[in-house]
Structure formats: structure tokens, C-alpha cells
Amino acid sequence: MKNRPKIKDIAEKAGVSVATVSRALADSALVTAETRQRVHDLARELDYRPNVSARNLRTRKSMAVLMVVRDVGNPFYLEILKGVEATAREAGYAVLMGNTENDPARETEYFDMLRDGHADGMILMTGKLPPSGGWTHLAVVVALEMIEGSGLPHVQVDNVAAARGAVEHLISLGHRRVAHISGPVPEPMSVYRREGYRLAMRDAGLEIPRGYEARGDFLIESGERCCRSLFSLSDPPTALFVANDEMAYGAVHQLRRMGRDVPRDVSVVGFDDLYLSKAFYPPLTTVGQPRAEIGRTAMAVLLGILAGDGAYGIQPIVLPTTLKVRGSTAPPRF
């Protein structure tokens, strides 16, 4: 078997020292551009690959980061992962996905991985910290799912304003009986989206009838369940603002089972703008979040922390949302 090429093989061919090759491969400014180019060309010619284990042993870094989510099967996270991975790759980091399934024991295990040096930092998207504590010295960035009072840097959207805008769209179409399917209150993201709904209704002078706020859990089945509950009321709504797209899919499926057309009989607005929402029938009106940008920004903040920049964690970074008006909303039939 052919021996794996080493730095000294490149050094011999280039006629420079091993230290110079090492600096050139790291694109150090201490090496001239001409020498850097020659070393990189020889590395490609020899099919040189760095010994990552040895490098990590020297630097005491794993050169890996964790992205920890509630459910790795949820397509919502894919665009965020792409943004995280693109920025991480540019900096020489690998991205490991952590799947908690809302299990506190698994959540704690990922923090243990961070403490034990199996990863250098974490992008946390579960909205939860280990109850045992011991995480304050770790490099953690919270993305989207807020953890109030944690002191950790956050990358998020304005959930109140985004939800408010979605409900105002329904009101502008003429809807007066607008109900809300929330996420798992009292989690902050769910609370803020519900607050946006309430503010829009209040500003329009519309009361929220008893039973018009149904509590879901962000899963499709809860959208179906909440929809059944809302349409068992004596005066059911003509429009639904649903706290995420997945529950909105469930609500639309349930409305069809009950013989109600969307949007002719009931208008539905979701939140997230999953890639399936364009292909869904009818195409779902929803709040679009810049998921790839959220991933890129969260990873950039994490890289800053790993580089020793202490400027993060005071004010959250808030990225804009966009209401995507599609075929699931229309004026009500009176």
C-alpha cells in the first residue's frame, strides 16, 4: 500500500522547511504568495491530506461543532443546517447534528459532549438548558428557540411582529372571527406568536371568543386535533393563524375531512415557510424566516466566541421575516 504523503515530502519537493510548508498550508502571511501557491500545488499533486487527529491533539480543539435540534426529521432545520455548514466549512469546522426528541437525558448528553471536548461549540435550537447547570463556561449560541435569562447570545426573529403581521393580513381580507393554534405554551416562541395574534385582534377592535385559542405542540397531529376543537364551537372561525407550517398542514387536512374548503370556507396562515408549503394544496400563506441566514449568522457568532470575542450575548441578533401570501387565504364568505 502506498504510504500516506507527509508534510516533509512536500518540503523536500518544494525545497523549503517543514515549518514553511505548515505555515503555507495554513495560508500564513509569513510565507510569500508564490511559496504558498507552490506548496498548495504540490499538496494537490501528492494528494496530501492533513492528519486531523494530530492537529487536534496539538491545538486541543476538535474542530467540530454541534447543532442540536428537537427532531432531526423536521425539514425546517435543513436550510439552517446548510447555512451553518457553509460558514463552518469555510473556517475548517465540521458540523455534527444532535437529535434530542425532547428527551431531557439526550439534551444533557450533548452538553456533556461539549464539556468533554468532543465538540468546541454548540448551536442550540431546543430552547432548553440542562437543569443541572454547568453550561455557563461553554461556547453556546441559541438560534430561534429563545432561552430568556440565560445570558447566552441569541439569533432570532421578532415573533411578535411577524405573528401580528400575519393576523393583520387576515383582518385586512375582512375576517373578524380569527382563531389561533399555538405552539407549546409556555415556551417563549409560542408565547410571543400568541402575543402577536392578540395584539392584532386588539388593535382591530376584535374580541377573542372563548375557545378561539387552541394549544398545539408544533406537530401535524396537534394541528388536526386543535382544528377539530375549534370547529366544534357553536360559532367557528372563518380564519386560522397557526404557529407553524406543520400544524397548518394538519389543520387543512382536517378541514377537508370536515367538508370545508380552503380558502373558500376557511383561510389558513402558517409560520416558517417550509419548502413543502409552496407545493402544498392550496399553496400555504405563511411567515417566511431567513433560515439559511439564521444558520450562517449563528455559526459566525459561534466562531467569534471560539476566537475569544466577548462582544456577544448582550443584545440578540434579530433577522427579518416576510409574509408569503399564497393561495390559502381569501376574503370570507358572508
From TrEMBL:
Enzyme class: isomerase
Enzyme Commission number(s) from the entry: 5.1.1.1
Keywords: DNA-binding, Isomerase, Plasmid, Transcription, Transcription regulation
InterPro entries tied to this protein: HTH_LacI (IPR000843), LacI/GalR-like_sensor (IPR046335), Lambda_DNA-bd_dom_sf (IPR010982), Peripla_BP_I (IPR028082)
The organism of origin for this protein: Sinorhizobium medicae (strain WSM419)
Matches recorded under Pfam families: LacI, Peripla_BP_3
Keyword Signal among UniProt keywords: no
Residue span(s) of domain HTH lacI-type: 5-59
GO MF entry, a single one: transcription cis-regulatory region binding
Official protein name in the record: Alanine racemase
